[in-house]
Amino acid sequence: MRMKMVHMKKTAVITAVFVLSISLIACSANSGSVPANGNPTDSGSQKAGAVKSSKVEHPPWYQKPSEERLKLAQEDVISTETMASGPRGKAAFPASKIVITDEQLQKIKAGNYKAAIAMGFSGDDWSEQQVAGLKTEFKRLGIEVIAQTSADFKDSKQIADIEAALMKKPDILVSIPLNAQTQAAVYKKAAESGTKVVFIDQPVDGMDPGKDYVSVVSSDNFGLGMQIADELAKAIGNQGDVAALYFAPDFYVTNVRYEGFIARLEAKHPNINLVAVAGFQDWNTTQDVTAGLLTKYPNLKGIYASWDVPAMGAISAAKISGKSPSDFAIVTEGVGHEVALNMAQNGFVKGIGAYLPYDQGVAEAALGALSLIGAEVPPFVAVPAPPVNRSNLAESFQRIYHRELPQDIANELK
C-alpha cells in the first residue's frame, strides 16, 4: 500500500476511528509520550552503536530485523536494486530481469486473454502510475482490460468489486488487498475459478504462490526505509533527536518500510536518537499528531512520515510551530507532487524514498501474462527504491513517472 497509499488530492478517506499513539518506554499506546531517557536533548549518555529506538515502544506489528536484514542494514552502501526477502520469506527477484521473449509474446497474443484490475484506492500519483504501467503492458501483450475498480479504502467495496469483476471471467486479476485476512475468501474464489491472481504489495492469508496465486510485486520496502534513514541523517548532520510517524494498522508494506528505517538508524547512525514514535490511522490527523510531538519535544531535528500524505500534515504542523526548514527535516516515501514541490522550494522535505509504480505495474502485467502460457515465474518480485533529494529530483521524477517534471516544480529548481 507501500502503501504506498495516496498522495494529496485525495478523495478517499479512511473511515476508521482516529487512533493516536505516541508510545515510548513506560507509556501506553494512547497515553502520550515521555523522553526515552527523561531528557529528549540528552544524547551524550548514548553509547556508540546503541540508538535510543531500542527504548521506544514500537507498534504491536513491529518485528526486529532478521539476521539477513540486519546484515543489509549494516552495509555501508545501500543497493538500489533488490535488498531483503519479501512476504513469508520469499527471496526477491529483480523486476528488471523479467523478460518476455518474442515466442512467448506471440503465444500470449494468440490467447486473446482478458484482465481485471482491482485497486484499493485511486486518485493519487502512485495508483495512477500503477494502472498506467499495467494498461500499457497489457496493451503491448494484446490483453484486454475488461474491468478496473477502486475501493476507496473500503474492504467491503473491494470484495464487491472483485465479485463483480469475476462475473466477466477475466483470465488475470491484478489487485492490492486492503486486508489480508477479511478479503482472503474473495481472492481464493478468484483462484478457484481459474483466474490468475497477481498481488500488488502483499498476498492474503491462506494462499500460496505458484498454487493459489502467481506472484507478489512490490517495491523493496526494507531498502526504502533504509534509504529514508540515510536521507534524514544527511539532512540533520547525522546527530540529534528525531521522531517517527507510522501507519498504525498492520499492513505489510508500511510495516517493513518502518522496520527498515529503524534498523538503519540502529546500525549506521548511533548519534541519532529516536525519542518518540506516533501512530495514525487516518492521515488527515497527522498535522495534530505531529503538533503533539513538537509540543512535547521542541528540540526535534527531524521526523519520518510513512508516506507523502502524512508528510504534508507534518509540514503544516512544523510551520505552525515556528520550525524552519533550516533546523527541521521531514523525510518520507513517495514523490507526490506536493512533497516534490516542497523539496524544490528548499522546504521541510529533505529526503524521499521513491517507489517506481509504473515499472511495478509493467512487472505485474508481465507476470500474469507469463503464467497464462505456463511459464515459471518467481513468487516475489521487487522493484528498486531509489533515494530522492533536491539534487536529483528532476531526473528522479522523470524516472518514476515517465514524463517531464511539472513546470511549477521545475521553476523552483532553477
Number of helices: 13
**CATH class division of the largest domain:** Alpha Beta
The helix-strand sequence is: EHEHEHEHEHEEHEHEHEHEHEHEEHH
- What kind of sheet is the major sheet? 7 strands, mixed
Kindly name the structural category.
Answer: alpha/beta
The portion of residues forming beta strands comes to 15-25%
Number of beta strands: 14
CATH architecture of the largest domain: 3-Layer(aba) Sandwich
* Fourth-level CATH superfamily of the largest domain: Response regulator
* Low-pLDDT residue spans: 1-52
CATH fold category name of the largest domain:
Rossmann fold
Nearest-integer average pLDDT: 86
Helix content: 25-40%
How would you write the strand order of the largest sheet?
Answer: 1-9-8-10-11-12-14
Strand and helix map with partners:
Blueprint: E1 21-23, H1 67-73, E2 93-94, H2 102-110, E3 114-119, H3 125-140, E4 144-150, H4 155-166, E5 172-175, H5 184-192, E6 196-200, E7 215-219, H6 221-235, E8 240-247, H7 252-268, E9 272-280, H8 286-296, E10 302-305, H9 308-320, E11 329-333, H10 337-344, E12 349-353, H11 357-372, E13 380-383, E14 387-388, H12 393-401, H13 407-413
